[in-house]
Amino acid sequence: MTKLLDAPERPARTGGRGGPDNPAARQGVVRSIRNLLTSPKYGPVTVTAVLFVAIFIIGGVRYRGFLSGQVFLNLFVDNAYLIVLAVGMTFVILTGGIDLSVGAVVALSGMIAASLLQTGWSPAAVIPLILVLTSVLGLLVGLMIHIFKVQPFIATLAAMFLARGLCYVISQSSISITDATFVQLAVARIPLGGNMSITPSVIIAVLAVAIAVWVLHATRFGRTVYAIGGSEQSGLLMGLPVARTKVLVYVISGFCSGLAGVLFTFYTLSGYPLTAIGTELDAIAAVVIGGTLLTGGYGFVLGSVLGVLVLGVIQTIITFEGTLSSWWTKIFIGALLLVFIILQKVLTARRR
Amino acid sequence: MTNPTDPAAPVVEMRGISITFPGVKALDGVDFRLFPGEVHSLMGENGAGKSTLIKALTGVYGIDAGTITLGGEQVSFSGPAQAQASGISTVYQEVNLLPNLSVAENIMLGREPRRFGSVDWRAMRRRAAELLAGLNLDLDPGSLLGDHSLAVQQLIAIARAIDVQAKVLILDEPTSSLDADEVAELFRVIRSLKEQGVAILFVSHFLDQVYEICDRLTVLRNGKLVGEYLVEELLRIDLVQKMIGKELTVLDDLEQRARSVSIDESDAATFVQATKLGRRGAMHPADLPIAAGEVVGFAGLLGSGRTEFARLLGGIDRADSGELSIGGRSTRLRTPRQALSHRIAFSSENRRDEGIVGDLTVRDNIVLALQADRGWARPIPKKRQDELTQSYIQTLNIRPANPDALVRNLSGGNQQKVLLARWLAIAPRLLILDEPTRGIDIGAKAEIQKLVFNLAENGMSVLFISAELEEVLRLSHRIVVLRDRHIVADLENDGLTVDSLLALIADGSGDDPEAPDAAGGPLLAAAVPTTPATPAPAATSAPTTPSDPTTTDPTGDPR
After folding, report:
1. Mutate to test the interface with B, among A36, A38, A238, A293 (most CBs of B within 10 A)
2. Radius of gyration from C-alpha coordinates of chain B
3. What are the backbone angles phi and psi of residue B141, rounded to the nearest 5°?
């Protein structure tokens, strides 16, 4: 019965083409590869993975010392905060929303941390406070989107201006951090053997990724996130907690921004109102390059991590090249983003 | 109102339900009862309030007045989740599932088996596979829902609904996208659920299906209760009259005219000629001429190529072989826009996604194609728009007759009429109608059929596709039978019957007199009786539903 129904979608290849010397097994492989690539679920993320490996190998061929474990690990060290941001952004984009406030919230977190530490607060109080505050900001944004049916773009744009403005309320200029714990966390290296090491930030980022993978893949909340991206209306009619979930993804994004802000201060050891401008766009780019559809419903957290790594490896290549300005990173990222969005369109359209 | 004595207490009792939308009283003091172990049909025209009543029961809409009792206790649901938790499950007309998730998740979402807070994927797949097996569906529960056809998705929606320990199962137009075999399959499932004591509310526009499966029915008209009846005590013609509230003469009229129009006007010029037109993976190369003023009907099963071929003619999909000549000149259609410039309009079967624009008004939807044709630089004057809209609202009897109503809020039949108006507004020379009458009520159906007729008389060619063979037979001058993406027959509609068409669809050997019973046997049970409104036509067209006394009753008694 289903065979009858499905027939129109999967036309049987009738003879003539191919011929006997073409083994059927190879055709099977080709077809399954094609199916993988044109799948809206796995296609883009597969392309990203291949791309990352390719860039890494190209770098290895061109530059001496590129193909080392530490260069790879430094991608994580340098981009730990961006990974955490991308994790939060993945939740939001999976529901079909967007969060433009994350960059400003990173800056705000840094400002709060720097100014409170300056007045002698303990890091054990500062860090939780930041995470609570940014989560509450996310909650307010979520409620605004849910209750007043404000476009996520507009609501988070408002939150972005608010957060950026609050940075200047705290201080007009840079505040450096001298707190012992923060300094320690900034310089600490965790050896992995073989002359390789990572920072504590990497461990936090990896933990965040692991939890996010579990939440999205294996909890009802996570599956509801995907459901909303598929069709909010259907989710509602299926009796899923759409409203709660939609608000919660912005809380998660807010929390992740706060956490990313803390990791960023470990990295810079200061708070500065003008920092992390445009970082929200890096996060969105990473998520999209990582294979999450901007319309929601398809994508993986691990894809977003891959997206961050691709951005990171491009930056590394430009550093190794030495003669290129770092602005070339932006140009490459822009071109890549364009290619990926077109790729998503083509892949999902060809399937129909 | 008949009030059959039933020892069991109703599981659902709705009393005096009223719901008002801005400008419309959708339900006005309606009573409704549903007993355990019965299949109950809710009947009424489009806009009668069926969907609204269902949504009131499932908690999608709040009620303005009245009470809802479930199992003896008064309830008031704040949303579908709560109704579901209380044992009311619904399968909606439009498939409301998630194309981006797996089949298993679509069945189990919201009540996944869990271990230590994690979704237990293995148990979920196993449970889903069991449910699918119970429906005789051989699917991989791990496959993406979006990879399956609409009909399979519908069955998956039903699998989802019966997985809940449902006391009440609501099926809103579940059969509108199913083929005969699947309908039979669905009915088997419904009967077994009924035996388990589930109360089933079955809404369908197919009278034959209602008469086959239902025990009792409630008729609504214009948001008001007409009455509750036992199916076996109510003649079809009476039912139709109760639903429409006026004598059903449109169809008789149509039938007579259909036969009076000379089918073979040899002077009619060929407008469109397809020669070996095909597309790999969609349709084998085939020939098809369509004359001006001719109605060509496509008969075939889902996936037979009937839609695929029409899409080639409408420029929706690009043909990769063969030739198409329009008005005698060889042409290549790459986009619907090119087809439109040749005055070929294609009205999709997928009304919601490829037809109406829900968030625009009736007026905007109607003038859309015409405006696109003129180009954005030359806007249609407001006055002209109003005239156009007004005239189509009147001719097609679009309800509510409000040009500013959002199309999203219209019933399915009225949305279809708006869509028709849009294409008619550009005065096409060939109008391709893919399932224009699916899921809409008898009254609207009759109006659309009548319209097709008038259009053809005025020289427009029409390509008419419908799963309802009787409808194809009634309207078409010529019938093209498709099977497995081939055209297997191209016949003048002269002495054709549903049986002979079925034989052709089933195995192509239409000339074999034994074929209908031998090969088309299982199909006959559910496929034949698709057009409900056949009071009179049966006399001339075909003795398709042999044991139905009402179909020979020409007028019925006016009430």
Report:
1. A238
2. 24
3. -65, -20
Smallest CA–CA separation between B448 and chain A, in Å?
29
Q: Which CATH number is B479's domain given?
A: 3.40.50.300
Query: Closest residue of B to A233, CA-based?
Result: B96
Domain membership flag for residue B5: no
Asked if A274 and A107 touch (Cβ cutoff 8 Å), the reply is yes
Pair (B266, B399) in one structural domain: no
Is B80's CB within 8 Å of A6's CB?
no
pLDDT tens for residues B451-471?
888 888 888 899 999 877 788
Dihedral sign from CA coordinates of B116, B122, B128, B130: negative
Instruction: Give the model confidence (pLDDT) of B499-529 as tens digits.
Output: 788 778 776 444 444 333 333 333 333 333 3
Q: Is the pLDDT score of B536 beyond 50?
A: no
Name chain A contacts of B282, Cβ cutoff 8 Å.
8, 11
Say if A297 is an interface residue toward chain B (CB within 8 Å): yes
Q: CB-CB: which of A4, A220, A235 is closest to B112?
A: A220
CATH number of A67-320+329-344: 1.10.3470
Q: Which two tokens stand for residue B259?
A: 């036969």
Q: Is B260 exposed, middle or buried (0-12, 13-18, 19+ CB in 10 A)?
A: exposed
Nearest chain B residue to A10 by CA distance is: B281
Interface test with A, best of B60, B94, B98, B178 (most A CBs within 10 A): B98
CB-based contact (8 Å) between A9 and chain B? yes
State the DSSP H helix or E strand holding residue A106, giving kind and residue range, or none if neither: helix A102-118
Query: Structural domain of residue B458, as residue ranges?
Result: 248-343+428-533
Same domain as B200, residue B115: yes
Q: Are B109 and B141 a contacting pair, CB within 8 Å?
A: no
Partners of B25 in the β-ladder: B20
Same domain, B91 and B212: yes
How many angstroms separate the CA of residue A128 from the nearest CA in chain B?
25
Q: In which residue are the tokens 């369109």 written?
A: A345
Secondary structure class of B291 (helix, strand, coil): strand
Write down the mean pLDDT value for chain A.
Answer: 85
Give the Cα separation of B346 and B426 in Å (integer).
Answer: 12
Instruction: Give the CA distances from residue A39 to residues A293, B162, B441, B559, in Å, rounded to whole numbers and listed in that order.
Output: 12, 30, 38, 58
CB contact under 8 A, A9 and B149: yes
Non-local CB neighbours of A316 within 8 Å, separated by 6+ positions: A59, A66, A71, A74, A75
Quote the minimal CA–CA distance from B144 to chain A in Å: 9
Q: Domain check: are B221 and B134 in the same one? A: yes
pLDDT of A21 reads 52
When divided into structural domains, chain B yields a total of 3
ipTM above threshold 0.90: no
Say whether B112 and A41 touch across the interface (CB within 8 A). Answer: no
Q: Which of A11-20, B103-112, B379-388 has the lowest mean pLDDT?
A: A11-20
| pLDDT higher than 80, residue B260 | no
Do B146 and B175 form a contact (C-beta atoms < 8 A)? Answer: no
CA distance linking residue B328 with residue A261, whole number of Å: 70
Residue A85: per-residue pLDDT: 95
The answer to whether B80 contacts A239, with C-beta atoms less than 8 Å apart, is yes
Return all residues near B39 (Cβ < 8 A) that are at least 6 apart: B190, B194, B200, B202, B213, B214, B215, B216
Is B547 part of any domain? no
Question: B56 vs chain A: nearest CA distance in angstroms?
Answer: 13
Of A226, A240, A241, the CB nearest to B100: A226
For residues B272-276, give the mean pLDDT.
90
Of B84, B100, B119, the CB nearest to A239: B84
- Kindly state whether residue B552 falls inside one of the protein's structural domains: no
Residue A64 in 3-state DSSP?
coil
